[in-house]
Design brief:
Elements lengths: L1 H7 L6 H5 L3 E25 L6 E25 L6 E28 L3 E20 L1 E3 L10 H6 L14 E21 L5 E7 L1 E13 L2 E12 L2 E7 L4 E12 L10 E2 L5 E4 L7 E13 L6 E13 L1 E8 L6 E8 L2 E17 L4 E20 L8 E20 L2 E16 L5 E16 L3 E13 L9 E13 L4 E8 L11 E2 L5 E2 L8 E8 L12
Parallel strand pairs: 13-17
Antiparallel strand pairs: 1-2, 2-3, 3-4, 3-5, 4-6, 6-7, 6-8, 7-10, 8-9, 10-11, 11-14, 12-13, 14-15, 15-18, 16-17, 18-19, 19-20, 20-21, 21-22, 22-23, 23-24, 24-25, 25-28, 26-27
Length: 546
């Protein structure tokens, strides 16, 4: 991976490149920090005496505290300026947030004979959110503090006050209260022991009250926002015949943009990157429609069929627009609303049981899974030769087929599978792309002499169709483990070996919805690990009457 970079930026081969560089940046940084998180929940239910009604309630909350400080020294150079610019920056950020909620639901149910019922379920939920952040930003280049260590700077904050950079320092406190109320209305009609239908309508109202105190450079403001949303949902449920289920659902949701993104601020804390707010952002609305059909054949459930489809539309989704200054190399990001995002997903799962023999403890199952996803993704991207973002629409079809066979015989376990995925993409600014991945393998679990147990898996992962031949790979991953129980099964020793052949790739290559590649990352290679597990069993103590 590094050979291309060595060739490109080598001192002998890159003289013309260096002359035409718009900008360059070198950064060294050191950071230290700590965090704390706490979570708690409580749930309960109370049955109303002499009534089928009941009350369900829940409450809980989270608390987070983060503190980190960073010392960063950077050198940037404009291609047309021979004098580099040095910067030494120090940040000392603390952030705290907590949230708590409480909700209650009352279930009223009326039965009209043995075959019809009516349910009314009012629900109320209260959420309280609090966030505070303190982020002083110091510019220390050319001062007596630019050579201080990170710990020295952190211990002498008061002496650094004259070097605060107002544009990138901010102090904020945000509070939010949300009241949510819904009223579920359900009517159920039973036709016979195997057929029934059910209709649910849930009108829901959400009221949001938010307040943001924000200080940054010329901005010292208090923003209040009150909004009320109507978010209805409808659900239809049928039992057409024995052991089959049919669902139809629709849901509408609405999401307001973050208050901070609505401020007209400018952030240049990262060299060569400028971030702006957008007071004109609109709410994002989402329409979701889903269909599901599920079949379990006869009482022994010899086969299962599950069909699931979902369609989703996003209106005024938020994308990060970007403009590029060809003279300085600075990128400016600003959130914008875009339309045209939608997706259609579907899956079909089929499983068949061939039989079971109790005396030999034998069983064998086979399954087939099909997943199809089609998405039209709209975003704002930057292209070569253009200084501002353009609207990009990419249509992607992902088709996956997976078949498997697995079973057991006298404590022996086995299984094989095969899987292939095809990705087809087209767009107004990209060439047609067809890539496919496939994998296959199996596993075996076998008892050995002296009460040892062996478990091993072999998987082959292959990729084809990528423009760069380095990504058209075949990797064989073989792993195994050997285990043994002692002390009547309470103590277990297991020796595990992962990637015995050492073929797992240490880099990952992915394509996002806009067909842009990201990212190189390190992964854990092969290893050997010993597991020791001890199981404690306690029987409950009970008092018996004499």
């Amino acid at each position: 991976m590094g050979e291309a970079l060595d060739c490109l930026f080598g001192p002998d081969a890159a003289s013309h490149l260096r002359e035409n560089l718009i900008s360059s940046l070198e950064t060294n940084s050191l950071a230290k920090g700590h965090s704390f998180r706490g979570v708690g929940t409580l749930q309960g239910s109370w049955r109303v005496p002499n009534s089928p009604d009941n009350v369900d309630f829940s409450a809980g909350g989270t608390y987070n505290y983060n503190a980190d400080r960073t010392h960063r020294a950077s050198t940037s150079k404009n291609g047309s300026d021979a004098n580099p610019q040095d910067e030494v920056r120090f940040t000392d950020r603390t952030a705290r947030n907590y949230t708590f909620f409480a909700s209650a639901t009352y279930n009223f149910q009326w039965n009209f004979g043995d075959r019809m019922s009516f349910l009314v379920r009012p629900t109320y939920r209260y959420n309280h959110d609090y966030q505070s952040a303190r982020n002083p930003y110091y510019m220390l280049e050319g001062t007596a503090f630019d050579s201080w260590s990170l710990d020295q700077l952190a211990s002498n904050r008061s002496t650094l006050q004259d070097h605060i950079n107002a544009q990138n320092s901010y102090y904020s406190t945000q509070r939010g209260q949300t009241h949510s109320g819904s009223l579920l209305l359900r009517i159920r009609k039973t036709i016979n022991n195997h057929r029934m239908w059910q209709v649910e309508v849930t009108p829901a109202v959400k009221s949001i009250n938010e307040r943001l105190n924000y200080e940054r450079d010329r901005i010292d403001t208090l923003i209040r926002r009150r909004k009320t949303y109507f978010e209805p949902s409808v659900s239809l449920y049928f039992l057409p015949y024995n052991n089959s289920q049919l669902y139809l659902d629709y849901q509408y949701t609405r999401q307001a943009p973050e208050l901070l993104s609505l401020l007209d601020y400018e952030d240049t804390s990262v060299p060569l990157i400028r971030r702006l707010g957008n007071p004109g952002l609109r709410d994002t609305r989402t329409h979701t429609t889903s269909f599901r059909y599920h079949v379990l054949e006869d009482k022994s459930y010899k086969y299962t069929v599950d069909i699931d489809m979902r369609h989703r539309i996003w209106l005024d989704a938020v994308a990060q627009g970007m403009t590029y200054d060809t003279h300085t190399g600075v990128r400016t990001y600003r959130p914008e609303n875009v339309n045209g995002n939608w997706e259609l997903t579907s899956s079909i799962y089929m499983m068949h049981k061939f039989g079971r023999v109790q005396k030999l403890q034998y069983w064998l199952n086979a399954d087939l899974r099909t997943n199809v996803n089609y998405r039209n993704n709209v975003d704002l991207i930057s292209l070569d030769g253009m200084s501002s973002s353009v609207r990009s629409s990419v249509r992607t079809l992902a088709w996956t087929e997976r078949a498997g066979l697995w079973g057991s015989y006298n404590n022996w376990g086995y299984g094989i599978y095969g899987k292939v995925t095809l990705n087809h993409s087209t767009g107004n600014y990209i060439d047609r792309t067809d890539v496919y991945d496939y994998s296959y393998g199996g596993h075996l679990n076998a008892p050995l002499p002296w009460k040892f147990y062996l478990s091993t898996t072999v998987d082959v992962y292959s990729r084809r169709g990528y423009t760069d031949s380095r990504f058209n790979t075949d990797d064989v991953i073989w792993s195994a483990s050997l285990s043994r129980y002692i002390l009547k099964g309470t103590l277990n020793f297991r020796l595990e070996a992962f990637d015995i052949l050492g073929q797992i790739s240490r880099t990952a290559y992915t394509i996002n919805a806009q067909m842009q590649t990201e990212t190189w990352r390190n992964v854990l290679g092969r290893y050997v690990m010993l597991h020791i597990t001890y199981r404690l069993n306690f029987k409950p103590w009970t008092r018996t009457k004499r």
